[in-house]
Write a structure and sequence with these properties.
This protein has 334 residues and is of the alpha/beta class. It contains ten helices and twelve strands. Helix 6 crosses helix 10. About 10% of the residues have low confidence.
Length: 334
């Protein structure tokens, strides 16, 4: 056996990239796809199904995925996150949110303060997001000052300095927002190299969460789009100039949708639907909700050139793996 063969044989293989998924649940095993009743009763947000989808994709791509199911208590979640932070063989951490409403009345009346800023967290989910080490945060939530903050609204204006630019987030963007951005890029990105990718495109996003709506609005507007961000109590406009302002009360969701080339909706309600007759010709519709926010049967029979994307799960998993490998490359290689 020659020297080259000896070297090849004896060279140790690099350790695999490992992702840990932390689920607050009383379930001790994955929910079977054959038991739909159990999945709805014990998995209202589809976290177990999403975890199984991640497991299958990671296996195919040579990534180790470990789902850690912990009791739904603050202490158990804290221990799991801190343990994953300390493990040298763990390169990425994914906490399945929301967790606050899984904890029952144990946290009723309690508040949690950020030790760095002295500011109380708006929700228990925010507290857990900041426990995850930035070097392992595959969702990019815990940016320690770089995470996108909700805009501070004053009358009809929003101080633009309270909106974090996408460039400041580094390479890690929330997976769902990144997935939708990449889908829209494939349909609508400008072919003109000199212009921003979404120049002169109007988008309505019916969701303003930190998981989807807020980062996506920031990313698209930074690339030239005019974005209407719709929440339950307000409509904000993210302009391509970087200015964010509150729309007047006369601006309705219908008006926003009718003027939009793209409509993205992620409302967690079976009752909410965007009326088909609001949608412009040749528009692109992206559904991010578990139950579609669009009238799917009407869209199938509609001849107006509408493009409908009913699910983003597979692209979201791809975005998750992209973030994981980016973290591994940036922080975990010798």
């Amino acid at each position: 056996m020659g020297d080259r063969e000896d070297a090849t044989t004896l060279s140790p293989c690099p350790p695999p990239i490992k992702l840990v998924g932390i689920l607050a649940t009383t379930t001790t095993h994955p929910i079977s796809s054959e038991d739909d009743t159990q999945s709805y009763d014990d998995d209202p947000y589809g976290n177990e199904r999403y975890s199984e989808q991640i497991a299958a994709s990671c296996t195919n791509d040579g990534i180790v995925y470990e789902p850690w199911r912990v009791p739904p208590t603050v202490e158990a979640l804290e221990r799991a996150i801190c343990h994953a932070n300390e493990r040298l063989d763990v390169h990425g951490i994914l906490v399945f949110y929301p967790v606050a409403d899984r904890l029952g009345n144990a946290t009723s009346g309690k508040t949690y303060k950020c030790h760095q800023t002295g500011v109380y967290y708006r929700s228990l989910d925010d507290y857990f997001r900041d426990l995850v080490a930035c070097t392992k945060d595959v969702e990019g939530y815990c940016r320690k000052g770089l995470r996108i903050q909700k805009p501070e609204v004053q009358d009809n204006d929003v101080r633009s300095e309270h909106i974090v630019n996408a460039e400041e987030l580094g390479p890690i963007y929330p997976c769902t927002a990144l997935a939708v951005y990449k889908i829209l890029e494939s349909y609508h990105a400008s072919a003109t190299a000199a212009s921003r990718l979404f120049e002169n495109i109007t988008v309505t996003i019916i969701n303003r969460s930190e998981v989807l709506g807020l980062p996506l609005a920031t990313m698209l507007s930074n690339q030239g789009a005019t974005v209407y961000s719709v929440n339950i109590d307000s409509i904000l406009q993210f302009g391509p100039s970087g200015k964010v302002q509150r729309e007047h009360a006369s601006t309705t969701v219908e008006k926003c949708v009718r003027s939009s080339t793209v409509v993205v909706s992620g409302v967690p309600s079976t009752a909410f639907k965007v009326p088909t007759d609001w949608i412009a010709e040749n528009a692109s519709l992206i559904n991010v909700a578990t139950d579609s926010n669009f009238e799917e049967e009407e869209l199938c029979d509609n001849p107006r050139g509408i493009t409908y994307v009913p699910h983003v799960g597979r692209v979201t998993v791809a975005a998750l793996e992209y973030n994981l490998t980016s973290l591994h490359r940036n922080y975990h290689q010798d």
